[in-house]
Amino acid sequence: MSVLLTEVREFVGVMTLNRPEKHNAMNAEMFVRMAETWEAWATDPNVRCAVITGAGERAFSAGGDLGSLIPVLTRARPPQDQFEATLLETHPRVRDVAMLRTFFPKPVIAAINGFCIAGGTEVIEGTDIRICTESATFGLPEVKRAILPAGGSLVRLTRQMPFCRAMEVILTGRSITAQEALEYGFVNYVTPREQLLAKAMEIAREISENGPLAVAAAKKAMIETSGMPLEQAYLIEDKAWDVVANSEDAKEGPLAFMEKRRPVYRGC
Predict the structure, then answer these.
(1) Is residue 252 a contact partner of residue 263, using CB atoms and an 8 Å limit?
(2) For 91, phi and psi rounded to 5 degrees?
(3) What is the residue range of the signal peptide feature (predicted)?
(4) Known catalytic residues?
(5) What pTM does this model have?
(6) DSSP-derived 3-state class of residue 54
(7) Displacement of CA 213 from its chain's centroid (Å)
(8) 83 and 100, same domain (yes or no)
(9) Do 159 and 238 lie in a common domain?
(10) For the segment 119-152, what is each residue's pLDDT rounded down to a tens digit?
(11) In angstroms, what is the C-alpha Rg of the chain?
(12) Cross-strand bridge partners of residue 200
């Protein structure tokens, strides 16, 4: 069985980390397949939004597989299969794409079905909207092992929750609960387990019904202008407007509104 399950449902790509017996810990094969999928979906017109989740009842992901992934990356042992060899040859590019450190142009929704630790937390830092179960926990325990959460957390976490909260999470290595994550603004919703994927798909479908060029341009501009002086940021916003306003979809949206019908967007 594949360590990564993927499918596309009505313009929504669904990615499932599929090693439940290992708490969906990411090994070399999963990293490589995640990177391949994100790269394919980035240019696939049939994918307008993506959802990432984990298989099983207990975990979204326990992070990198300490027994297989880390020994390869630290060269403690030679690669034992094609995925380990590929990861070693192409790291850190594959890592950056797999963990969404490289910009992904379409909205990504995380459906977090349990504990989400270390690299698991770092993956969802690359997502745009987050829903978790009531039993979910988040944490970056790397400093407890005298290493760093360097999959993006040292850069992204202070931008995604209050500065002092981010410092506490990283410097103590303690986990936080779903309710704390909600209070910190790190997740959007906390839901019962049985409603998790349905809620994620509801939001994903709502997004995918919108103009895909407008959605992609909005995401890109908001990320690019984060922390930028207003004068420079407005120039990027104006450029995004110019590109989207000259599209066929920008004509279709108002026309469909006037004709009282659902718009048919083609992404051009």
Answers:
(1) yes
(2) -65, 135
(3) none
(4) 122, 142
(5) 0.93
(6) strand
(7) 19
(8) yes
(9) no
(10) 999 999 999 999 999 999 999 999 998 888 988 9
(11) 19
(12) none
